[in-house]
Amino acid sequence: MGTKLVSISLIIFITTLVHFSWIASAYNVLNFGARGDGRTDSTMAFVRAWQAACNSARPEMVYVPRGTFMIKPVMFTGPCRNRIEFRNNGKIVAPDNFYAIANSGSWIMFYKVNRLSINGGTLDAKGSGFWSCRKSGRNCPPGARTSLSIMWCNDVLVRGLSSYNSQLVHIGIDHSNNVRVVDVNIRAPSSSPNTDGIHLQSSMWVTILNSVIQTGDDCVSIGPGAANIYIEKIGCGPGHGVSIGSLGNGYNEAGVQNVTVTSSVFTKTENGVRVKSWARPSGGFATKLLFKDLIMRQVNYPIIIDQRYCPWSSCPHQASGVKVSQVTYRNIKGTSATQQAVKFDCSPSNPCRGITMQDIHLTYVDRLFRPTLTYCSHAQGTHRGIVFPKSCF
Ligand SMILES: *[C@@H]1O[C@H](CO)[C@@H](O)[C@H](O)[C@H]1NC(C)=O
């Protein structure tokens, strides 16, 4: 009994020691002049901590302790000499005045870093001033395109992070490969304009797992040049759903291929799973898309392909050049907030091909018990199992 207790205390003691010495050897931003008072500009301290860690030949950690750290637009640049972790136990906030970040491409950017892990903490971009400016119709700055940007990076893990109130996109992934986003929590009011949750493009092997996204625009949007994308167990809503696109805005555009969205719940979102392209000529495409095991709760358009996408007034009104093919919808159940639960509005010049509908059950939230409907234009495909609303194939 006695020896057991002693050995247990010894283990605890050693573990604590190892833990503390490890944190102490980390590049703590406080040691570089950061102040966790929420007011002091800690940008340069963060940059100095990053540079020191990045220049080390050993795997290193930049450590942000508890506290609220005010940061202006910042770029953490690689390549670093070894693996690097950005560990945040605190809260990083943007300045109160939205202009401070609204003229830079992004607020916090990781650029050309390989073997990076971004762990924990909160980011609050304080976007409300910027949203009000946009809504007022005043002449506003362009806005920070992303709160957290991962650009030209490889082998990245983003884990346990909360991101609030981005001016535009919360997390942007661009020109990066092998990125895992796990256990993140993204939040902005449903009325906030164009606040996407996660936007990715020109990137391969991106996984988004186990995350909650409540925002004013797309929960996840997947742009040109994305391939091998896997999204599992996300809760989306409020927001505009998961979108492939918008595609086909440019003529010379890379396609999107091999995207899976699975085991996810959409609550009161504008769309569930959507493919959207502009109605103009383009060499773009979207192929091998798999949407399965999804629950829709009062979603306006649970299943939609919209090849006449045009959110503003000047629409191109041509046929979309984007070729949509091999799209599978399997085991999608729940309720639609509009009668048209399934809509395939495809391109007259490039009809959608190879759409598969299997085990679909979507009912209309309607006091008159009207059935849901499917709309098809220039769409070709097959159906299997029970499909309700009845498929048009
Ligand atoms: C498609 O992407 C998934 C990851 O989502 C991957 O496991 C699979 O191997 C990819 N398929 C092809 C043919 O590359």
Automatic annotation (TrEMBL):
GO terms for molecular function: polygalacturonase activity. It comes from the Eukaryota. The keyword Secreted applies. The active site is at 240. InterPro entries: Glyco_hydro_28 (IPR000743), PbH1 (IPR006626), Pectin_lyas_fold (IPR012334), Pectin_lyase_fold/virulence (IPR011050). Belongs to the glycosyl hydrolase 28 family. It is found in: Secreted, Cell wall. PANTHER family: PTHR31375. One of its GO terms (biological process) is carbohydrate metabolic process. Keywords: Cell wall, Cell wall biogenesis/degradation, Glycosidase, Hydrolase, Secreted. This is OLC1v1007864C1. SUPFAM superfamilies: Pectin lyase-like. SMART domains: PbH1. The keyword Hydrolase applies.
